Amino acid sequence: AQSVTQLGSHVSVSEGALVLLRCNYSSSVPPYLFWYVQYPNQGLQLLLKYTSAATLVKGINGFEAEFKKSETSFHLTKPSAHMSDAAEYFCAVSASGGNKLVFGAGTILRVKS
Amino acid sequence: EAQVTQNPRYLITVTGKKLTVTCSQNMNHEYMSWYRQDPGLGLRQIYYSMNVEVTDKGDVPEGYKVSRKEKRNFPLILESPSPNQTSLYFCASSQPGLAGLEQFFGPGTRLTVL
Q1: Closest of B42, B40, B29 to residue B90, by C-alpha
Q2: Which residues of A touch B58 (CB under 8 A)?
């Protein structure tokens, strides 16, 4: 069965610093992987997705993620954090033939001025 | 505009009072799902539907019912809500064959059961 582990329930960075949010997955089949962001009191917004094309995936708002099969990882990065990046981020893997996503527990990103 | 809508967005109710949360999508998607979000647990699938009249349990189905009589609608029914069903609920839709099997989410329904 597919599963997702997000390391670190809370991550704090200074404005302008590198953002690194970690995600490891378990999947018995080639995975489809996603990162979603949830701003306070809002719904889920897709940041980016891996669909087996390029291993380095670029998303919205300057975020990108690299699929590493050998490490079963799909970490999310952004070179320079902005105050507006403060949110909760979820990594997810597509499962059961595509009729559901299995989510990690989420990582709350805090950006300090 | 392609979207998934949910109603109501906020709901406070009491234990045992039946309620329904509606979900509708305008993208002609075959797949629809309900998730609940709880702190520290991420989102977990409650029920899903692969087409009209085809539904199945997800990971946390206890205490919930669904129906899919029309392709666009997928209501979530709590026949006898309990406080442990206090949560944030999301409806989602997707289309098999689309690249990445991306799910499109509604805005969420925050439910409080007293």
Answers
A1: B42
A2: 100
**Cα dihedral B106/A56/B101/A42 (nearest 10):** -10
Calculate how close chain A gets to B113, using CA atoms only, in Å: 19
Label residue A25 exposed, middle or buried (CB < 10 Å: 0-12, 13-18, 19+).
buried
Angle B60-B64-B16 from CA coordinates, rounded to 5°? 125
Residues of A in contact with B42 (CB under 8 A): 4, 90, 103-106
Neighbours of A61 (CB within 10 A): 13
Report d(CA B73, CA B32) in Å as an integer: 9
**What confidence tens digit (pLDDT) does each residue in B54-90 have?**
999 999 999 999 999 999 999 999 999 999 999 999 9
pLDDT digits (tens, 9 = 90+) for A14-57: 999 999 999 999 987 778 899 999 998 888 999 999 987 788 99
User: How sure is the predictor about A5, in pLDDT bands with cuts at 50, 70 and 90?
Assistant: very high
Say how far apart CA A95 and CA A91 lie, in whole Å. Answer: 13
